[in-house]
Design brief:
globular, oxidoreductase, 29% helix, FAD, FAD/NAD(P)-binding domain, FAD-dep_OxRdtase_2_FAD-bd, steroid dehydrogenase activity, acting on the CH-CH group of donors, six-stranded mixed sheet, Flavocytochrome C3, Chain A, domain 1, alpha/beta, Tricarballylate dehydrogenase, single chain
Amino acid sequence: MSEKVDVVVVGGASAGYAAAVAAAESGAERVVVLEKARRDDVGGNCRYSAMGFRFVHDGADDLLGLLSPARREELAGRIRVRPYSRDEFFADLNQVTKNLIDQELAQILVDDSRSAVDWMTELGHQWVIWPKPVRVDGFLEYPAGTVIGPADGGLGLVERWIQIGGRLGVELRTESRVSGLLGNFHSVQGVVVDGPDGRYEIEAGAVILASGGFQASAERRARYLPPGSDLMKVRGSRHNTGEVLDMAVALGAATSGQWQGGHASPIDLNAPDVEVDNTVNRYAYPHGITVDVNGKRFFDESERHRTYTYAKTGWAVIKQQGGIAYQIFDQQAVDLFPEAYRAAVPVQADSIEALADKLGIDAVALARTVEEYNGAIDDSVPFDPTREDGRGTVGISPRHTNWARPIVEAPFLAFGVTGGITFSFGGVRTNRDAQVLNTSLDPIRGLYANGDMVGLFHHNYPSSSGMTRNAVFGGRAGVSAADAAGRR
């Protein structure tokens, strides 16, 4: 059995639907999205994320213009957000990836970031301001880079994509696993599908791969990621297992990104093994200290704002004995906890020694760590939670660069954490039009990719830039694929 379509998209989450909708808008008459999950599980990692978008903007008034009239009226005159420029976004991408990000793709991501959000808004996506603010002088203050997210979170985003696609005639087929690519090193003409009623082929004018990374496969984590990664918890969908990525590489696709890297963040020690949502995030670490099972600090908790460090902090934790660490706070930090801590139940005690006993940590060692940290704080620098304030430690290693305050106000709190992986960084190499390149760095005709299938990031990534990438390059993939389908 076989059929013909203009464009087939592999993957039914935000990366796939951005491309599918763009293809339909660009004249592709028949666009089919293939998703291996059941309908009530469609959406990949989006289903499990509160989610934000990082994009260039001119500050609070500019961002308020994206909200509904009711939300705009509610927040007008109450929020403060400084502008986020193209230069700053581009610098952030390079700083966290150690300048290894593809410079052309990074520049496109930055330059097209705001127009991509405007396009989504015109399509019918709705936005909210979602991070927890810091209250200063009666204002709600937000960090510049990531302020806006989709109404109803990632699941709301996916369902709106599906509705928008449906209005444009995009067909969603669930329980439809792609088991082969029809083509070779030079061109691709379709896919092999294992659907609910058996195997069949789809001949397509263009194929867009958007099925995510390989992080939900323990075997592939063991193959590509650092030792012990196969035992990590998966902060997201169980369906991102990497077989389509392997197919593209076997066909001759060039690779890019850091194949031994990925987005790994600190999450609750008792979180489920897979399909972990935002309620288990533990991102308050810049406002306390984090220690291993021996009571010793092992990284700079406040190198930068957490939106620039959380995606690598999980790796720091997973490298510790047993892949376990403990975040230690006093009462001064509580007002700065992100929303996810509301549902968390900390270990509490009126002394550091008693806290250590409850955690099973050497009490003398933890007390010494806290004493050394408290004594090293440069209290001549004012504390300012609204920016990277430079209030750090002197003379101890590792440093605590910002927001350092002595841990002295009981009861003291501890949260057990481990590292959870969200998405892998290794993927196929693409050009500015989202065409997949072969190992000769020529475009594979008819083959495109978007999302975590594409190798873009190294070492780390600025929070929420992945979602913006999905919209920016999904738009480009869809337009290019529709054009290719029209020429066949």
